[in-house]
Amino acid sequence: MRRIIVFCLMGFLCSCGVASSKPNIVLVFADDLGWTDTSVPMMPDLADSRSQFFQTPTLERMARKGMVFSNAYACAPTCTPSRAGIQFGKTPCRLRQTVVHDVLAAERGIDCKDEVSIAERIKRIDSEYVTAHFGKWGFHPRSPEHAGYDVSDGNTNNGEGDYLDVQARTPLPPEDPKRIFSVTRRAIDFLEEQASAGRPFFMQVSHYAVHVGLAAREKTIEKYRDLARAKQIDKKNLPTYAAMIEDLDSSLGELLDALERLGIDDDTYVIFTSDNGAEMFRAKGTLRGGKAQLWEGGIRVSTLVVGPRVMSGATCDHPVAGWDLYPTINDLLGGDALPVEFDGGSLLDAFEKGNEGVISRNTPELIFHFPWYGGALPMSAIRDGDLKLVMNLHTDEVRLYDLAQDLAETTDLSERLPEQTARLRGRLLDYLDEVEAEDLDDMFDARIRELNRYVQRERERPEPDQAVLRRHANALESTHRARAETEWR
């Protein structure tokens, strides 16, 4: 029986061969893993596209066996909308789930409960499939069970990655930081059970690492303390962060080893990617910005693929996004063509032919929308070929970059290339209008209403908690301040 596994930590993985009609699928996500946070060069000719400090031998193993996608993007610059985009095969702005805490969607009753999840699509193609989700779910409008998963860890979020018991704040054991190894153990148990029974399956493994707070095994941390001293690097949290990345990579190695032990590695597609770019304080290398921003550092993610129909040791430079996974899996399983509202396109031809392959999308461009109400500058962006246009949602100002020549987004070409700028700006606005994307002012107003409700509720208590009131007051102040901050940054 042919097997397919899809891992989303940072990217997509695969190796060459012939797929069968019953591929198994596993999706593994990393959390907040940046484009340059592995020892695999995302671009062979760009030294800064890999880390010279972090060590990820399992990902290197996958790169040798499969394909690296050099221009791969998360669905969004933060976790919740990115996870929604992968689950439902559409851009977060089409789903109207564009930020982590989408108060506007909640007010309007938009919960994606009528959307067909990737697990549900698989079961419609073949009802024999068993579906599982392990680790961080991170999309509360729908639970894993409601989204079609037969087995799961439940409607989990960041807290489960820090505590054994979230309510009691019981810490995780030191040998299982961020649940890296226990999540992997459950995934392997599931693999063994389905392989023994001969059942086809889809499994998503969504790690809590490498999200804050930082945690890793002490022996791995000590390795990087020694390495930092040897390299004369004095960054307080770097050894722990590096150790967490390596622990995550080690757990991925355990999973790949299990596939080999079970004799299904040659029949398995593995896709590895991250839900967004690195936290701003970690961001490094060539890319501008980080998490919660639509600059490249916030959305470009490491992506590798291995599997039967994937070229070995190859790099594919086609721009791809998280919402391409849904049609890819649909294609691998022989599903019918998806309706036009599914934005992505199958990557199967790219798996087989690399840069010679063709990716046909219902929405040809990659479009991102992030009407955030605090912290980072609210932006929309569109990428078409090598050109990327970004729009300041406060002012409607735009900037244009040629990513083939200017990956760091330092040189604005909007005045030099007015026709291309006008074309991309028009296409971006048309798309946002077509999908009824969430408006920035509406998002701000909904957040203010929510915070005022919190304040009123606390004041109506017999003994209001002054600390809670101060926290809400600070949140109101920062939200109003964010509305007034319109400068590019």
TrEMBL record:
Protein name in UniProt: Choline-sulfatase
Record EC number: 3.1.6.6
InterPro entries for this protein: Alkaline_phosphatase_core_sf, Sulfatase, Sulfatase_N
Residue numbers spanned by region Disordered: 457-489
Keyword S-adenosyl-L-methionine: no
Start-end of Basic and acidic residues biased regions: 478-489
Alphabetized GO MF terms: arylsulfatase activity; choline-sulfatase activity; metal ion binding
Species this protein is from: Botrimarina hoheduenensis
Domain of life: Bacteria
Top EC group: hydrolase
SUPFAM superfamilies according to UniProt: Alkaline phosphatase-like (SSF53649)
Classification via PROSITE patterns: PROKAR_LIPOPROTEIN
Cofactor(s) named in the record: Ca(2+)
CDD domains for the chain: ARS_like
Entry keywords, A to Z: Calcium, Hydrolase, Metal-binding, Signal
Signal sequence annotation: 1-21
PANTHER family associated with the record: ARYLSULFATASE FAMILY MEMBER, ARYLSULFATASE G
Pfam family, one: Sulfatase
Acyltransferase is among the record's keywords: no
Primary gene name: betC_2
Domain Sulfatase N-terminal: 23-334
Family: Belongs to the sulfatase family.
